[in-house]
Amino acid sequence: MTDRRSPPGRSSWPSRLRLPKDIAVLTLATLGGLALVVWGWLMQGAEYTPGLLLQFGSSLVLIVPLIVLGRVLERRMQRTQDALSSDLADIQAQMRAARARLDTLGETSRDGLLDRHRRRELLLREAERAPTAERLASLLHEAAGLQAVDDGGVRTRLPGSDLWLRLDLRRTAAEPNQPNQPNPQIQAQPGRSADETLHLTLEDRGGEAASGTVWARDEQASAVARRLTARRTGVVPGRASTGTAATALRDIDGLLRLLVATLRTAIAARTGQEPQDLGRLIELPNEQWAISADGLWCRQRYFHIRTEQLLDARQDWRRYTLTKSWVDREHFLDAYRTAHALLSGSASAS
Q1: Distance from C-alpha of 34 to C-alpha of 56, rounded to nearest angstrom
Q2: 3-class secondary-structure state, position 246
Q3: Are strands 164-171 and 209-215 parallel, antiparallel or unpaired?
Q4: What does DSSP say about strands 281-283 and 304-306: parallel, antiparallel, or unpaired?
């Protein structure tokens, strides 16, 4: 049996001959107007001709300019539409190209960040395993580049002592007689400038130095500890807890690992791996508080006493903080006393 229906996508010939509705209405209106003109001419005869010509001429005067104007506007709109279509196509092409570049850049940046994170983590683990001068200098350089530590480095308290051990990286001035001749004893290492030297300093709570020394790149930590003890004993005899400090410095590797832990916390806080940023870190007096260049931070929740608030005698932040139920009184008082002494000394020096 043959299917007599029209093929899909093709309309039948009656529907193709059917006029659109608006054209049909216009045609009927035109025929109706023509019929009225003829009727009026039949009723008035020759007297109707001048009026008919006048109306026809008026219509031409009105309609022809409108038709011409419409054609001009239509052509301009078409040109504008073509230009907009061309511009839109160019914009879409540029957006696709930009998206492709961003995807490429994102992958490159992501790979670079992951690679840097892996290298940083490897360096931290190596420093925790064996805290050498070269590794600690590289870590300090990395943390300083992130603005994660204070310009004066980081420090930790000697157990059972009233002294702190500070680790910092300082630039050495070039000798005036040989400005362009490299020092054969200093070799440039990845992540560390050749004109930077590592320093270890014994200091009191407020940051006043008791003794200090340069830690050479290839020197053992135990030798530096003995030199620190000897210089302190010779330069500042009888100062508090000399024997306790000397005993603590015998475990110099343990003290250096505490400094590595401080650097790890500083880098993690700055790179978003910790719940909050801790500023440019100086010291971790205990597990609840951190001392940075811009004040005292709580490590367990967002609570920050800025340096100017800490040093303002008119604001009793110590009493206010002790009213908090989550505050460990002993930990806070020790951290507050240390931060006040240390930051007041820094403010006086600046």
Answers
A1: 12
A2: helix
A3: unpaired
A4: unpaired
**Residues ≥6 apart with Cβ < 8 Å to 124:** 139, 260, 263, 264, 267
The pTM assigned to this predicted structure is: 0.63
- Mean pLDDT in residue range 179-185: 41
Three-class secondary structure of residue 42 per DSSP: helix
* SS3 at position 32: helix
CB within 8 A of 202, min separation 6: which ones?
158, 163, 164, 165, 166, 209, 210, 211, 212, 228, 232, 245
The CA R_g of the chain, rounded to the nearest whole Å, is 43
> 170 has which bridge partners?
197
- Residues with Cβ < 8 Å from 109, sequence gap 6 or more? none
**DSSP label at residue 212:** E
Element (H or E) spanning 155, and its range? strand 154-157
Half-sphere exposure (CA, 13 Å, Cβ side) for 160?
10
Give the pLDDT mean for 33-49.
70
Burial 261-287 (b: 16+ CB within 10 A, else e): bbbbbbbbbbeeebebbbbbbbbbbbe
pLDDT digits (tens, 9 = 90+) for 289-315: 999 999 999 999 999 999 999 999 899
326-345 confidence digits (pLDDT tens):
999 999 999 999 999 999 97
CA dihedral 59, 65, 70, 71 (to 10 degrees): 120
Q: Model confidence over 73-99: pLDDT tens digits? A: 888 888 888 888 888 888 888 888 887
C-alpha 302/C-alpha 104 separation (Å) is 37
Cβ-proximal residues to 271 (8 Å cutoff; 6+ apart), any chain: 117, 146, 148
- Six-digit token string for 310: 């800490």
Alpha-helical runs (H) found in the chain:
13-17, 21-44, 48-129, 133-145, 221-235, 242-250, 252-270, 307-311, 317-322, 329-349
Terminal-to-terminal C-alpha distance of the chain: 104
Residue 287 one-letter amino acid: E
Cβ neighbours of residue 340 closer than 8 Å, sequence gap 6 or more:
310, 311
